[in-house]
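explain this chain.
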Amino acid sequence: MNILIGFLLSLFVGSALAAEGDVPIEQSNGSITTQAISGDVTLTATGVATVQAVNGSATRPWQYERTITNPADTDDWLWFKADTALTMTAVDCVAQGTTPSITVDIQECDADGGNCATSLSSAITCDGGNDTGTIVDSVIDSGDWMKILLGAPSGTVDAISVQIYGTKAL
């Protein structure tokens, strides 16, 4: 279903735009190129590009990252509160230390930070490489908190870095 949208969007180089319909792209020299698209488009210009989506919909990428030093078993952290509805598309983590291993679970909580439910099929075991999780609940409601739960550290875990990625409507 196409929704009539007229807005301007500033994107940095390499940002993805998912849109449907006619998308005029203003280039840095002032010329405008119009491209009819359906699906994902990645801008590969230098600098900042201005994109106007008309008769379609658009999303933009987002990413949250958190590094926790000296993590302990059963540490849980309220991470961020969603300012708008988000769709989570990927989760990964890296543990640092001497033969580090620690589990990470990502949960969505209500607006008060309670009543949390996992967003992953199971906790990710982060053991020194880039480890990824399988998302089973990708929708994050506007106003909800996201939480990181840590558990079962072994070896020496000096730090854990967790990243989640996704898209949000404009």
About this structure: The two ends are 16 Å apart (CA to CA).
